[in-house]
Amino acid sequence: MDFLPINIDSKDIIxxxxxxxxxxASDMLFGNLYIWHFSRDISYCILNDCLVIKTKFANEEYPFxxxxxxxxxxIKTIKDMMDYFSxxxxxxxxxxxxxxxxxxxxxxxxxxxxxVPNRDRFDYLYKVEDLISLNGRKLxxxxxxxxxxxxxxxxxxxxxxxxxxxxxxxxxYTRWFNDNPNINDGLRNEFIGIESTLKNFDRLDMKGxxxxxxxxxxxxxxxxxxxxxxxxxxxxxxxxxxxxIYQAINQQFLYNDWSDMEFVNREEDLxxxxxxxxxxxxxxxxxxxxxxxxxxx
Length: 297
Prior knowledge:
The relative contact order is 0.18. Strands 9-10-11-12-13-8-14 form a seven-stranded mixed β-sheet, sandwiched between helices. Strands 1, 2, 3, 4 and 5 form a five-stranded antiparallel β-sheet that branches. Strands 6-15-7 form a three-stranded antiparallel β-sheet. A hairpin with a 2-residue loop joins strand 11 (216-227) and strand 12. Helix content is 36%, strand content 27%. By secondary structure, it is an alpha+beta fold. The protein is globular and about 60 Å long.
């Protein structure tokens, strides 16, 4: 079984299989795979007319797979992957199954697996129109921050990212990164992914937005359409010197580039308390639940 490492040339084949069904969870969206493939071993193979993505984190002993993509026999593919993992003496597991995928594996392979939700990996789903208008009591605080931004920085300019300004964004982000006294491995890995994304921006199916204040980049965001009515926000970075800047880039990116979408997926919180609080304050309409699968002992 030949697994090929993910790189930018993998985009078309992965997107082809990805788009054969409706997916809501952000994990297998190509932009997500591309940003993070520098920090973990991500590879894929085609088996039984399905595409299987295998991932191994540096701090974990065994790899895992995501649910097979495509129109082929997914259950046979999972069984074949179980045999493959056994042949390698690897512990078999699947991660980030959506609810319907969990139901499919439970009904077709009963009493084989332990299946548990992983709250730290749930994606947060919001209505685009809510995060543009910021109307309602629950978003009142966000709207106040945004209105303060509008009052303080009336000369701000919104730009779309393209090949003409992507390197300017990278230069700015590099300065922010180097000025951060609290760098850790996670931020280093994220930096490498963002750097490569911006250098190859015209080859990726992403959109990006910038806010400039006095001609200086104050914030940027990167996102990608995941299905017919939803966008995923992969990256959102800002200079907090400017009051309300995060509320502004969130609102402006959706308003200018994604107002035709119904839902926005702002990904997971990884169990980080501050990140969870921040995502909850935007009042998600629901979670995209994700489940982890291991073989019963």
